[in-house]
## 1
Amino acid sequence: MGGDFAPHAPVAGALQALEELGPEHSIVLVGRTEVVRQQLDELLNGDLAHLRDASNRLEFHEAPEVIEMTDRPSAALRGKPNSSMVVGTKLHADGLADAFVSAGNTGAQMAASTVLLRLHPGLKRPAIATLFPTAREPVVVLDSGANVDCSPQELVQFARLGSVYAEYMLGRTDPVVGLLSIGEEAEKGDMVTKEANHLLSGGDAGVNFQGNIEGRDIPLGHSDRGDFDVVVCDGFVGNVLLKFYEGIAPMIVEMVGKHAGVGRPELERVFGQLDYSEHGGAPLLGVRGVSIISHGRSSPRAIKNAIRVALRAVESRLSAHVGQRLAAAVPSVSDSSMDDSSSMATGGAA
Amino acid sequence: MGGDFAPHAPVAGALQALEELGPEHSIVLVGRTEVVRQQLDELLNGDLAHLRDASNRLEFHEAPEVIEMTDRPSAALRGKPNSSMVVGTKLHADGLADAFVSAGNTGAQMAASTVLLRLHPGLKRPAIATLFPTAREPVVVLDSGANVDCSPQELVQFARLGSVYAEYMLGRTDPVVGLLSIGEEAEKGDMVTKEANHLLSGGDAGVNFQGNIEGRDIPLGHSDRGDFDVVVCDGFVGNVLLKFYEGIAPMIVEMVGKHAGVGRPELERVFGQLDYSEHGGAPLLGVRGVSIISHGRSSPRAIKNAIRVALRAVESRLSAHVGQRLAAAVPSVSDSSMDDSSSMATGGAA
């Protein structure tokens, strides 16, 4: 029921995913079954008539409530226990599904995942890892919006989470981590970034740390020190950057089309590489399980790709690897509890 | 002597500016006179032979020391009082020049301007205002890197500074200000941004505040609430975004050229609109005077455009208007002194 184009996009995307993924996979559609079935019938009598076989691997699970995009996450969770978000996450938590995918309210998905799936030890909140296309290969940027006002210790955790993602989801060997700042020197940046650079440089962090990188390095996928796979930043910066990147492709299609006389379809094909829907879904890293966040504006194609991301996360045992990496970084657990106490202090002063 | 291509770029850019600006203007080249004159001779005996007349309006002022890009700003200021940065800023402070332009060490330029030109009351530090090309008209983004770890009160001051810039430098009537955040709702964002939204919404700020905008709105130059002229953010976010934007144009030229078979020169002409050198220089807002920061990688063309920006700032009496706007916003002065005391507390705790 989630996302700007529900139920059309989720139902059509699920059908397309089943077609691609093969007969051993099935998908449970969680929501108002009557509405979902009606949407399915429309698709099977229309554009997607050729996917009738695949539709036999769809199941339905009733969830009468819907969390709206404007609902406040924690209130929605308490107030709508029968929403598709809560019910779907519970299906996964109870082992009745291997993963959960949604294009609905991101905050509510984070809250539901944190409460129902729980987090690996050493984390206070999950992080969102997003793939940014570069001139080279995509790089993982995290956090992309789940956490603002981060502590240096949280940035170190993001470095670990991103390394696991790059290794198991993207197949990168000993992934290289860059810390996003405003200069390549360790002493450049705001207070949190400078301290995070110090912690990451110490070696205890257990990641292959390259040092600070700058905004201009991201589209290239490398800095003066070489290629990187993971970009670590606060969720405020990451979210601004992600949305800025999303906004640029249409602007450039417009400009190039107007001035250089290049055809729009041709350009849009090229800029598909800059299109969020290509990658489809961002795993909520740190939860014990697989919860994939899709863009609110997800098309059927984006949903299909999000389902593929979910499958890859399950097959690569992403969550188990995250748990192992965090457990191996013993100092991080105490860092994190230190950090808890500093948050409490802030709360007390407010 | 500043920038990656000195003395070539500053000398060639100054010549080109004189040619364009007409006979009533002259430029003082500050630096190692022998080196500067030798560079000039080379240009006048080579590519720029046609600008010999313009060169009669060049003057020379000896400054034997050079602040390197890697020098620490405050140490450089004390240790190199005869640097082109210090000597040039002093010429302007003493009224012997109407403006100062440099492609050198940005931190040192900020420090020199703050100490020698001084700031308008109500400010602790100057801000850097940068023009971002959009699908519509350029928008002013500030701060673009002069200030990290900003207070909400500082963001309010940026809103005022940006409004004056948009009005007097860009000719926008009653410029619209957006606050960069991670959601359009007032309660979205980190702690500083949420508090800044509250202060800006109050009406005392004296700016035409639209509310929060998101990263995706910047390339469009408008949000769902309409067009905006000024984007307010912390200097960390602004600098990351600026450099990201700079890095994207070359990446896209590469991608489009490869996939769509469009000629490189054609694309580069289009992406000139995304090129920093088009706009050339960013005024250091808040100083009593005109100090223009050029990119370290400035070409002669970028320097020429920076000189044009300086001239526009002088002719529009930008600095005087900034002073008037800040003085009119009486609450801001007390806000700012409140903010000073909180900085002191932070200093004491460190």
## 2
Amino acid sequence: MGTVISTCQTKLPPHLLDTAHAERMTPERLAARIAAGTVVVPQNILRRDTSHITPPAIGEGCRIKVNVNIGTSASRCDPDFEYQKACAALDNGADAIMDLSTAGDLKSIRASVRSLDTTLGTVPIYEAVRRAGNIADLDADLLFSVIREHCKEGVDFLTLHCGVNLEVLESLRSDPRTMGVVSRGGVFHTALMITTGLENPLWSEFDYLLEILAEYEVTLSLGDGMRPGCHDDATRHAKTVEYLNLGRLAGRSLEAGVQRMIEGPGHIPPDQVGYNVSMMKELSRNAPLYLLGPLVTDIGAGYDHVVGAIGAVMACAHGADFLCMVSPSEHLALPDITDIIEGTRVFALAAHIGDLYRNLPDAKEREMEMGLARSTLDWERQFSCALFPEIARSIHSRDDAEDTCSMCGDLCAIKMLQKVL
Amino acid sequence: MGTVISTCQTKLPPHLLDTAHAERMTPERLAARIAAGTVVVPQNILRRDTSHITPPAIGEGCRIKVNVNIGTSASRCDPDFEYQKACAALDNGADAIMDLSTAGDLKSIRASVRSLDTTLGTVPIYEAVRRAGNIADLDADLLFSVIREHCKEGVDFLTLHCGVNLEVLESLRSDPRTMGVVSRGGVFHTALMITTGLENPLWSEFDYLLEILAEYEVTLSLGDGMRPGCHDDATRHAKTVEYLNLGRLAGRSLEAGVQRMIEGPGHIPPDQVGYNVSMMKELSRNAPLYLLGPLVTDIGAGYDHVVGAIGAVMACAHGADFLCMVSPSEHLALPDITDIIEGTRVFALAAHIGDLYRNLPDAKEREMEMGLARSTLDWERQFSCALFPEIARSIHSRDDAEDTCSMCGDLCAIKMLQKVL
């Protein structure tokens, strides 16, 4: 059990050599960071020999990665459409896909996404609740059995809301929030605790959970069940207790040789992003941090991809490692293909800006290259180092402006300066 | 001369009472801040009795404002099109328009934008160079005469690159930059100094310039002629010398009773935004700060509006007051109407997030209101407090999901929690 972490304290397993290379990291350094729990490389052991991708490293010193959620809902259940969304995300810069489907043939939807040969995450409690039919009828056995099934299917990382315990529920009651609980996983566990009066089984039987995950080398994504739903709810007691819980569970996972990352909020006013992110990092001893947004304003509906990208860059400045894309239709509707494309692009942009904070050589060199390409008005070279070459080319070719662009035309500063000097 | 500043040290001129009200500031406080030079309210004295707008306050404790540039170029000269772009900008959240036209009947283009009854800015050196025909033939008299004409036409604020002096040129030579000079105004003045060997007349005859501006109560926007054109050029000597120069000129303007703000870069790596903005604020004794972007990556061509919005929010955290919109077509082509709409929206969003850093009551209350609207699944209330109500409504109405949205359908966390509690 836990072979990734336990065997690699001095030596990197051979299947991660490409990962180290992709991160411009020595195998020894990557091994040490995985062993210290500051980096994870999510890949289910069952996919090791069949997958053709280089599993992505997430965490300290790695390029910031982007996840895109897809998935059916009862209001819009079209598995083909979700498959196309996953393709669109991967084409536009996503490093991983989470399937959050709650309607249709869930197993077959996962198989279809898995066929894309990408890093795949799921949230097993969605399926467990659906099978139970009613939240009150969900028991620990069913939940653990669904978790095991997802592992057996080759899912690479699982979001599990292990930190939503009775203490969190008590904090929610003693320090109420405007929007209560807005994470679906968070609501399921809260409802279960309220209905049964019992502790969250993922908390009380955490060691058993770790055994299952270790068997398949599945990465645990410690879910953000108390994600604030609005600015007024940020940094309240319930979320802070959950930060503490997730920090404790992160330590136990590491001891058990199970790779894990921490999920974080959510809706946070801009001035609170820094200390929320820093707190998560400190409490978990620098576990990799997986953030949804954060959304630094609540009134940007329709442009929440931009709001999320702004928040994501702020979070990256303080240590976020893995960004969960927020689409333009967040809070309003299930995303369509265009939403996925636009959202993924702006998050790929945010991740690159995050990489600049880390002084990653590839990112810095690409910036330098663009400066040189612009200084010589070399348009092909500009397009080739742009994040979105075809979009840049298409806008530039809209007007005919010879060697400059139609913004300034013959009054191009670069051209004029060349003449003077 | 200088009546706005000199007469209002204790009492606010009556024409600015609505401005104080709009900013939820007492007239005394606004008067004190204008007198201290930490706030400007650009309005040409000739427009005071004819304009129907409340002139916008820019600076300490004010709502962050957005400017949108429009203007013809030799490659695309269509004044009607530029007029429509100005309308689109104002419809989507712009507080001011700068006309940067360099082709066509410049005076008539300005008149057409002025007819929109919005705060208007220009860059007189563009017209001066065009009239001179050749940069070497531009003399101080022509430049000052164009400046006076723009004042006489009722322009509210003028960008003038007064800080680009021989010392800046020397710094540019001793500490060269990859892209040299990318501000058109900066290039004109640099070229003029190189050609004539003489000092920039806007620097050497700054007192005369102040006399003209004071006569019309026109606000001076101290131009960013050494704006870095790529990340490698940020925070180099030439720009730092210009920061110092602008700080000195800001002090002289204030003494002369002329309202002024400082323009800032440009292309800056994310980790350098904070100290660049803080430096400008400190060196100018907290003059209002007007920023173009900054662009925190150079490789986002096609999405530079998002890059600029991300940089703008960072800059707001450190004191930026006035944001110059960057459009998706920046670096590639003259913006079209869609570019203006998209760019203005994301900058309006950035400005609102900036307002949250300032703890402005209107901005905070709107966030609170959205939380309440969401917690009760009150969709009409959500739309009405969204920044872009019609866009939010249109996305939400895409699918039928009854009282929730199609993202989660019947598994809406808010709805489920309401049931449990």
